[in-house]
Amino acid sequence: MSPGATRTRTRTTTTRSIGLVAFAAVAALLSWAGAASGDGGIGTPDPPRVKDIVCSDRCLDIRTVTETGKVEVTGRDLGETTAVRFPGAAGRIDVKPSKVESGRVTAKVPTGAASGKVIVESRYGTKAKAPEDLVVKPEDAIRSVKGFAVKRVEAAPKTAYFDGRKDIELDYLFEADEPADIRIDIVAKKKNKTVDSIIEKNVEPFSNQTATWDGLDAKGKPPRNGKYKFRVSALGGESGSSQATGFAYYDHIFPLRGKHYYGDGLGAGRGHQGQDVFARCGTKIVAARGGTVQTNAYQSAAGYYVVIDGKKTGEDYVYMHMEKKGRPKEGSRVRTGETIGRESDTGDATGCHLHFELWSAPGWYEGGHVLNPTRPLKKWDKWS
Ligand SMILES: [Zn+2]
Question: Pick from 22, 141, 160, 362: most CB atoms within 10 A?
């Protein structure tokens, strides 16, 4: 059976986990703000203030947790919290928090807890209520998968580009006694920050699986360039191992695919609108950024040239002095790294070179203006 047939990718759940990720950033910020403000020092400490509550373990949604899962209450002046109070079917249930920081309190959801507003109480008797309801589900709402262990994870390709020719994929395999819900986090290595999560429901064990990441963070933007990893774990958490596999992710590729050196940049005493990059005649030119081909034409100065409206940048990428008419048709989609032509000296050019221009949105002769492409080019050059 193909992996696609054995699992359903739940878009809704993905969206929820996106909220979770966005929240984590806010929580970190609040936690920092709390720490910076201090806890009063002299006199009566400030009463606690609660900004939000989210599920952190055994989660079905950002504010939906199962009994025995964990929640995080964030806010300010929470450092003296001694009890977290949950509504219960048979009256309130107080639990001792498992972790207390000024900006964040973690607590295990007790068996018997019911949905509703959670309250934190300090040792001084001051209280604060979470503004949002917490939804509590029975413990068996998330299956604990027995024998869960991730056996293999592999990212492909090892160097991935936003909107690249190859999808950014994770191959994985796990063992378990039954199908499991899988959580795949895309984590920026340097800051150990989860930028996106994918939830895959009811996945078959002992079967090679492939998950695809769209190269966008939880807010739908390309995340920072650099090293990332896919981390695979059971959605239920705590029930087993997780494993990770690394890859590099970049939002652009250097457009000239051969040995090259830089010529004139912007201005150059002659109103030059781009950066010239010299290379052997016929060197392959690829799209630095995928997008839609706006123009593929010939002009006496530019020679054969191609203008691509970059995906998610709104900027236009202009490639001039190509050997012949560019490969992609006007109006067609090209991917980052896709060949668009070969470098030459057509038009007003001395020596084979790529004349590259970068235009701000809305783009080339559409109301945008010329940007200095030299720094971006040199940046892309470093990694590609
Ligand atoms: Zn030029």
Answer: 160
Question: Between residues 191 and 237, which one has the greater pLDDT?
Answer: 191
Could you give the strand order of the β-sheet that contains 209-213, starting from the edge strand earlier in sequence? 149-156, 168-175, 209-213
Among the three residues 91, 117, 139, which one is the final residue of a domain in this structure? 139
What is residue 38's predicted lDDT score, i.e. its pLDDT? 45
Using the mean position of ligand 1's atoms as its centre, give its distance from the Cα of residue 264 in Å: 7
Q: How many A from CA of 275 to the centre of ligand 1?
A: 6
- State in Å: Cα 348 to ligand 1 middle: 9
Q: What is the pLDDT of residue 6?
A: 36
Q: How far is the CA of 295 from the centre of ligand 1 (A)?
A: 18
Which tokens belong to 262? 């830089």
Task: Count the domains in the chain.
Answer: 3
Whole-number Å distance, alpha carbon 300 to ligand 1 midpoint, is 13
Q: What pLDDT, on a 0 to 100 scale, did the predictor assign at position 239?
A: 52
The pTM of this model reads: 0.67
For residue 350, how far is its CA from the centre of ligand 1 (angstroms)?
9
Higher pLDDT, 237 or 252: 252
Structure tokens of 17? Answer: 């986990």
**Which of 195, 230, 250 is the endpoint of a domain?**
250
What do you get for the CA distance between the two ends of the chain, in Å?
37
Whether residue 130 contacts residue 81, with contact meaning beta carbons closer than 8 Å, is answered with: no
CATH number at residue 366: 2.70.70.10
Domain shared by 196 and 233, yes or no: yes
